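Cross-posting from the modeling subforum.

Setting up a comparison between two proteins and wanted a second pair of eyes on the formatting. Protein 1 (sequence, then C-alpha cells):
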Amino acid sequence: MTIEPYYQDDFATIYHGDNRQIAPGLGRFDLLLTDPPYGIGLTVKKMKTRGRDPKRGGVALAGNYDPFDWDKSAPSIDELNRLRETAGHQIIWGGNYFALPPSSCWLVWDKVNGANDFADCELAWTNLKKAVRKITWQWNGMIQEIQNKKLAEKKVHPTQKPLAVINFCLNQVPDAKTVFDPFMGSGTTLLAAKQKGLKAVGIELSEQYCEAAANRLSQGVLWTPTK
C-alpha cells in the first residue's frame, strides 16, 4: 500500500502515522537522527508546572502545547533496533533510557539550565567511531528568547531540540546526504537537514505536530547554520 506524504518539497518529506507501518517501505538512509519518547510520563500538565523561574514570579517556562500524550510509552528496544537497520549512521537522543549497545561516542548537550529541576544535560547515543562530543546551548529563559528572535525559531513541542543542536548532530556525519527521523515531532531534524541541502524524511504520529513541521518547512531557509 502506497502512503501519501503529509508534506513534501525538494528536500523534506513528512509522513503522518506510525513509523512501524511506514518505515519498512522507505528504504535506506545515510543517517538515522531521532529523539523518541522516553516513556517517563513527561505529560503536558507536568511540563507546565516544572522549571518555574523565581525571577519571573514563578511563571512556568514551558509553552502551551497540544494535549497529545506523546510520552505515555517508549518504543521497545526491538522497534529501535529495526529503525537502526534503516541507516548506517545512527544518533538517538535519550539513548541513556534504552538498552542500546556500548558506544565510544555519546553526544552531550549542556543546556545551561540554571536553577530549576530540568536536566543539566541531554545525551544522544551514537554508533559513530569517534570520541564523546559536546555542545553548550541555552534553551531556556531570556537567552532562549533572544536566540529564538535572532534565528526565527519558536518552540512548539515540549521536547523540541534547538536547530543549533541538531545541526551539531548533522556535523558529526559530514558525508551524510539523506536523513531519517521516525519520531519527527516539530520537524527540527528535517528543517536543519534542509538548510544544509540534505534530503530528509520524517514520520510523526500527531497530526498537529505534522502541521507545525510543515509550516516550519514551508517558510524556507531562515538562517545559515555553521558548517
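Protein 2 (same layout):
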Amino acid sequence: MIILVIILSVVSAILYRAGGMSRETVHWIPVCMRRSWVRDWICPICCLLPLSLRSWSWWLVPAYGAMGGMLTTYWDWLFKFDNFWFSGFAIGIAGFFLVGCGVEWWLILARAIVLALVWGTICAIAENDFVEEYGRGSTLSLSSLILIV
C-alpha cells in the first residue's frame, strides 16, 4: 500500500502541476492536460484510491466531492490573497466524510494540519511555481499515508 501511495503521489504532483500550467508554457506535460479540472477532480482520486482499495464505502463519494471542491479555490475571495495555509487545511478537513469509512477523526485533523503546514511553508519559501505545485500535488496524496497506516 505504501508503494502505491508513493506512485500516486508522483502522479498527483504531475496532475496538480498540469492543472495550473498555461498552454503557452514549454513543458513535457501535454497541452490537453493543462486544465484546472485535471487538478481539481483527478488529484482527489490519487488520495482516495488507497482507501477505497482497503475497504470500499459510499462515504468516499462525498469525500471526493468535498476534496475536489476545496481544490477549486485558494480562498483569495475570503483573504484577498491566495492563502495556501488555509487551503491545505481546508482540503484536509474535506476528508471528514472519511469518518464514515472508519477513519479516526483525529487522523483526518492531523492530516489537515500537516497539509496546512507543508503547503504554507512550500509556498512561503519556494521561488517558482514548479516547486510549489509539484510539492502541493505530491503532499496531497502522500499525506493520505496518515489515514491508512
